[in-house]
Structures are given as structure tokens and as C-alpha cells.
Amino acid sequence: MEQAIIVIDIGMTNKKVAVYDEKLVQHDTVYREFQPVLIRDPVTGEQLPSHDISGMETWFTDQIRIFAQKYPVRSISVTTHGSTFVCIDSGGTVCAPCIFYTYEPGDTFQQEFYHICGTPEELQAETFTPRFSAMINLAKGIFFLKKHFAQAFSRTDTILTFPQYWTFLLTGKKAYEPTYLSCHTYLWKQNEHQWSSAVDSLGIRSLMPVEYVSTCSGLGKILPRAAERLGLDSSVVVTAGIHDSNASLLPYLADRHGEKDFILNSTGTWCVCMHPTQESSGKTDAVYTPDDIGKVVFFNRSALDTPVKTAIFTGGMEIDTYVRLYQNVCGTNAFPASDMQAVRRILSEKKIFILPEVLPGSGQFPGSRPGIYEDGRFFPLAGIKTSGTIPSVLYDEKLFFAALDISMVIQTETALYRAGMSDTTSVYIEGGFRKNKLYTELLASVLSHNRVLLTDMNEATAAGCAMSALTALSGKSCTELGRFVKIEHVPVCGTAVSGYEAYKSMWLELTGAGSRI
After folding, report:
1. Tens-place pLDDT, residues 254-306
2. CA 488 to mean position of chain CA atoms
3. HSE on the CB side for 192, CA within 13 Å?
């Protein structure tokens, strides 16, 4: 190994430090979970979940020092989950809490935000970002701090998006980059590469960084004091930082496997369907159709600064929530399994429907109440947990998991079409759902005109983050680095099923969406 790249990969659940070489081979990795730090809301008195920024910094420092003794580190690159920012004062110290974006301040807060910043439709037309619940729209998190932590927020000198906070600690440079700002923040006008009207409505323009850095370029060399603390040479290059979904897309942009048009269905806690603009089109502007406004579809910017039409839902969170419910009811730790025979029965009888949204307002059906319909009766998810009134399907492993997988397929299909899928679009499935054989076969059956393929790209987010660093180090393009990306594509053969469209129509009616997808 001639040069090593350290990747800091910050997910909502797992935090990771990994080491890659100049051929994008991973040599080392360590993981750790951090529990939320509960802080008191000065206005409501409620305990709020916040990120353990200081704990993460200590752990990252310790792990990098260990790796620095083993590998010739030449670069550090950072990728993080979205919807998160850090306020620092004039001395570069964190001055306000970093609240979890999953916290929901309530309807009154949401209404006040849109009263000040513009209607959801106006903001979506300007920023290509739909309305999300909680504080998934990052601008809402800033508004929340201004209202609820006014004294702490008043000390803010600069608001840094999450990857750029960590690169600031390493370089001392305050910057912003396109993949993070473009990901449902309400802060960025993508086509103009300018701050949005929401920045001025919130009165924060003077608090935003002034330096723009492209994703795959170097932000700067590591500060001498940071180099000493980490045991690194002061010539180590730090990249701009990258949003995690965009990092996971980058290897696929480098290795298209002969596909000119594809959607990456990246599955996990969030299922993210990303449809990059075809390179041959030469288009760099995001374009909404009139039908897109008001729907849960938005544009990312790729690490190459090209539009990526995107639709998301909390698929992994939905599965985890309902599976835990099943396990609690049945007194088991076993993960449920099912088969196509159970799927056919669910589709034929049309008596059992499992509905989103476990995280209200987060996915493709923001008006849906989570729960289970059984024989015409609705069992709200919260009620099942607390009242002891339990639908009988929770005692039937195969029927329960078949209904849950069908729900995942309907949500996936909806997201794919909203992301712009046509009959010629190939669909790549990566992440945890690729191990769910029933889900992948049913999805392939439903998408009979499309090629559906499983990919074996392990840790695509960390690999894409390393790619951005290698681009900065070597000056080579993403395409040139494609020779180091080895992604196997395994076609999925669908199994004939009938009754899906009729079942889906009933499912949509029960969510309140009807045919409006």
C-alpha cells in the first residue's frame, strides 16, 4: 500500500472509521454505536435527543491514531447522514445542541415555519425539495434552534452542515458542498448554485459559510495541531465531505455495468431510490414536472454535480418496527420468513394490509396512519402496542411477513416511478433488502418490463467516500477510477403472481392516497 485513505462514516445508528488503499480496497474498519444525549428544551421542558458530538470526536481521534501507526495515511474523507448541522461560535466551539432530525416539534411549529419561509409548494418549486415531517428538512432544525435555544443560537458564528463540521475540525476551513445542501434542506437553489429564499427568511445568510467546494476536491491540508493530535503527517489532504446517499451512488456512476439508465434502490433504515441523469444527455439542471409538485420526490446532486431525481421512504424502519411487534406478540426472537404461496393468498383474499408511515410524513404516503387492516377493521400501530388488541395475522408468521413484503414492494414501486423510472430503466438493489428473497422476487415480478439486479457492493457509502478522496489525491476522474470498482450484478427472476394491481388499489385507498401516485 502506497497511500491510505481514512474514511469517517457517520450513520444515524453506526459510526465507522475505515481504511482504504489507492485501489479502493478496504483494509481495516471499526464500528461503534452512540446513544443520544438527552437535553432539556428550555421552552417546553421536554427531553430532546441530541448527537454526542464530543463523544464521537474522542472516539474518532483514538481510532485514527491507531490507524496512523499502521498505514501510510495520505487523505481523510467524511460522509454523514443527512438533515443535520452544527452551530459553532467565533472560536470554533460547538455552541448549540445538535438535535436529532427525527424529533417532531408538532403541527404548530410546522405551520409557523411555512408561514415564515413560504408554502411547501413554493419551497419545493424553488429548491426541488418536498415537505417532510419532523426536521428532515434541515432548515426546520435551524428554525427550531432559533426558537427553542435562542440564547445558545445567538452565539452562533457559522452554521456548518454535518460532514463539513468534521472537515472544519481537521482543516479549520468553513465550507459548503453540493451533495449535502441539495438533499432536502430547503436551503439551496440547485440550478443557480445559490442560497434559497429560506436562508433570508430565517435571517441566517451571514451565518452560512462563504467558501464553496466541489465534492471530489480537496478542502485543504490538515491543521498542524490536528495532525499532531491524530499522529498524522501535516501533508494529509482532507476532502470537502459528502452526503451518505450520494457517496453510495458514486461507485455506480463509475461502473455502470453497461447500463445507460438505472435507478439505485439503496435499502436500509431509509430506502433511497436515486435516478442519476444520463451522462450522454449533457444536462446539469434539475427539472420538475408540474405533476411532481406536492409529491414526495426531490433532486439530489451527485458527487459529479449532476441532478439525481430521488424518492425515499423508511423501509428498514418499517420492517424493524413491525417485526419487533410480531416478536413481542409471539414471544420469539426469530426473524419471520414467508413464501410466494403466502403472497398469493394475501393478494387473492385482499383481507390483510400493512400500512406506513412509522415515521409520520417521511415517505411516499405522508397521510397514511401506520397499522394493520384485517377483515375490514383497522388496528393502529400505537394501539396494538398499548391496548393489547391484536390482529390475528400477527400470530401467523408467513401471512404476516408476506403482507409486510407486499407493503415494501408497493412503496418501492411508487418511489421508483416518482424517481422517473421507465420501461428501459434498470433497477439495482443494494443494502439489506437484497437478502430478502421474497421481496426481490416480488419486485421483479411487478416490474416485468425492467431489469432488476442485485449488487454485491459492500459498504458502498464508505467506498464512495474513499473514491472522493482518491479523486482529490490523484486528480483522476470518477470514470478513470471505475477500473477499481468491482460490482457484481445478479439478475432477479420474477415469479408470476396475479391480483397485485387490484390489491395495490385497495392498499392505496386505505393509505388515503387512492390512485394519486
Report:
1. 876 556 799 999 998 899 999 998 654 556 788 888 888 888 899 999 999 89
2. 23
3. 10
Beta strands in 441-503 (DSSP E): 452-455, 489-491
Contacts of 407 (CB under 8 A, 6+ apart): 318, 353, 354, 355, 356, 507
Strand-strand pairing, 262-267 and 271-276? antiparallel
% of residues, the chain, pLDDT over 90:
84
Q: pTM score, two decimals? A: 0.90
CB atoms near residue 252 (< 10 Å): 26
Consecutive H or E run containing 253: helix 244-254
Phi first, then psi: give them for residue 486, nearest 5 degrees: -120, 100
Strand partners, 50: 37, 99
Contact 457, 429 (CB under 8 A): no
Q: What single letter denotes the amino acid at residue 295? A: K
Mean pLDDT, to the nearest integer, of 61-68?
98
At 450, list the grid cell. 425492467
Could you give the angle at the alpha carbon of 38 between the alpha carbons of 37 and 41, nearest 5°?
Answer: 135
Radius of gyration of the chain (CA): 23
> What is the SS3 assignment for 153-199?
HCCCCEEEEHHHHHHHHHHCCCEECHHHHCCCCCCEECCCCEECHHH
Instruction: Determine the 3-state secondary structure of 431 from DSSP.
Output: strand
Amino acid at 26: Q
Q: Is the pLDDT of residue 344 over 50?
A: yes
Q: Which of 221, 239, 217, 214 is nearest to 306 (CA)?
A: 214
Contact by Cβ (8 Å): 306, 330: no
For residue 516 the three cell numbers come to 394519486
Three-state secondary-structure class, residue 237? strand
Helical axes 340-349 vs 397-418, angle rounded to 10°: 80
Using CA atoms, how far apart are residues 343 and 81, in angstroms rounded to an integer? 34
Rounded to 5 degrees, φ, ψ at 15 are -110, 145
Q: Which helix H or strand E contains 148, and what residues bound it?
A: helix 138-148
pLDDT in tens, 16-53: 999 999 999 999 999 999 999 999 999 999 999 999 99
DSSP 402: H
pLDDT tens-digit map of 183-224: 999 999 999 999 999 999 999 999 999 999 999 999 999 999
CA 238 to chain CA centroid, Å, is 23
Give the C-alpha separation, 516 to 380, whole Å: 23
